[in-house]
Amino acid sequence: MYSYFLAIVLIAASAAYFMGTGRARKMAAFHGTKNHSLSGYYGLYTAIWAALPALFLYGIWQTAESSVITAMVVQSLPAEFQKLSSAKMSLVVNDMRNIISGNFSTGINEAWLQNAADKYIQLRDNFRLAFIGLGLLTIAGCTIPAYKKITPHLEARNIVEKLVKYFLIACSAIAILTTLGILLSVLFEAIRFFKMVDITEFLFGLKWSPQMALRADQTGSSGAFGAIPVFAGTFLIAGIAMLVAIPIGLMSAIYLSEYATQNVRTVAKPLLEILAGIPTVVYGFFAALIIAPMIRDTGALIGLDVASESALAAGGVMGIMIIPFISSLSDDVIHAVPQSLRDGSYALGATQFETIRSVIVPAALPGIVGSVLLAVSRAIGETMIVVMAAGLSANLTANPFQAVTTVTVQIVTLLVGDQEFDSPKTLAAFALGLLLFLFTLVLNFIALQVVRRYREQYE
């Protein structure tokens, strides 16, 4: 039903645009003068008044509809059910919504629960019909005054551009507030975790075993939440990936930008970027079924003890996966260095290699550092390849031939399935996420300092 309303809003805005444009031209001809703005701005002015208030009303109702109708249905339940605790009432509401969506319910009491679901559907349909009527009145009530207000002296362009400016500010604010909301949500849950587990144990502990025992008398009932093995595995795999990706990616970018012919560049660059479009699960299969056995068999031939799941297999394949992040971005940055810098270097007698080393790379350094930073973030955040090729064992080791785990893998493991969000086991995921966020922040700061120190300034 709401899709019809959105279609009505679109049609009304389109009609308002043409009506506003036509009125602006007629008013200019009637008064024998020029309009303050182009006719299109008057059409946009009318269309905005036709659509924006209705869409604002739609957004408010979409946010509140479920809560309002659910509260009305709960108030209509028998008295004995209204006395249920909030947790049990939540189960009742979920059961009712399962019936409405056609899914199976737990069958608490099918008779009254079905009646509640029928009442919910009836109220929802009635409210939606009323909302569509209110929306049509809003469209008419806002469009007609805006249409009548159109005169040659109306500064439609200024009004429309101001509204566009406010819209862009709102989009920027949403992005900032979303980031802030994510950070605060992680921070609050992490604080709850640190109230249960000592922060020094988490930061400096050497054993990670968050599995909680069912009884207090069992061994390890309190769990072990030392995060060092998890972060050591993360840095080990990311480091291996960077050792593969940075040299190959950067050398590929330099070759494509400085040495390759246009025909080679046209063919090679899209082929290289295909690597970025391959799903990570495919890389995981490749690492688990081909690379890991190959590394294990090769190690056995020379007398090395290599685990079936190793950091080397995961890091190597991850490095191949993130090569396009470095090569493509670095190639674009290097290619954008002004040709005048190259010509000046050649005029002074520098070779092509010296020009690349002393002129082009310093000029393109901010973009190269940005591409490397993006690749590092991609490596740290990868999950599927690590699960399939490196395993879940939180081993504190620098041996790339052993199985390790990463922060993201542990976060997924802790939050998958039916979990209670009041136990240290689950809350540990938020503590790991917070620490990972702080590490990324420090990494960004270091990269910024590197760019500021080594960047060449060109006029």
Structure description:
The chain has 459 residues and is an all-alpha fold. The protein folds into 2 domains: 2-154, no CATH class; 224-454, MetI-like (MetI-like fold, Orthogonal Bundle), CATH 1.10.3720.10. Helix content is 77%, strand content 1%. The chain is built from 16 helices and 2 strands. It has helices at 2-31, 39-75, 79-82, 86-101, 110-148, 156-196, 199-204, 228-259, 262-277, 280-301, 311-335, 339-347, 352-381, 384-389, 407-415, 424-454, and strands at residues 208-209, 224-225. The chain has a two-stranded antiparallel sheet with strand order 1-2. Helix 4 packs across helix 5 and helix 15 packs antiparallel against helix 16 (424-454). The longest helix has 41 residues, at 156-196. The chain is flat and about 85 Å long. Residues 213-220 have low confidence and may be disordered.
Q: Percent of residues in beta strands?
A: under 5%
Indicate the percent of residues in helices: over 70%
Measure the end-to-end span: 59 Å
Low-confidence stretches: 213-220
Domain tally: 2
Brief digest:
The protein is mostly helical. The protein is built from 16 helices and 2 strands.
Topology, element by element:
Layout: H1 2-31, H2 39-75, H3 79-82, H4 86-101, H5 110-148, H6 156-196, H7 199-204, E1 208-209, E2 224-225, H8 228-259, H9 262-277, H10 280-301, H11 311-335, H12 339-347, H13 352-381, H14 384-389, H15 407-415, H16 424-454
Antiparallel strand pairs: 1-2
Helix pairs in contact: 1-2, 1-5, 2-5, 2-6, 4-5, 6-16, 8-11, 8-13, 9-11, 10-11, 11-13, 12-13, 13-16, 15-16
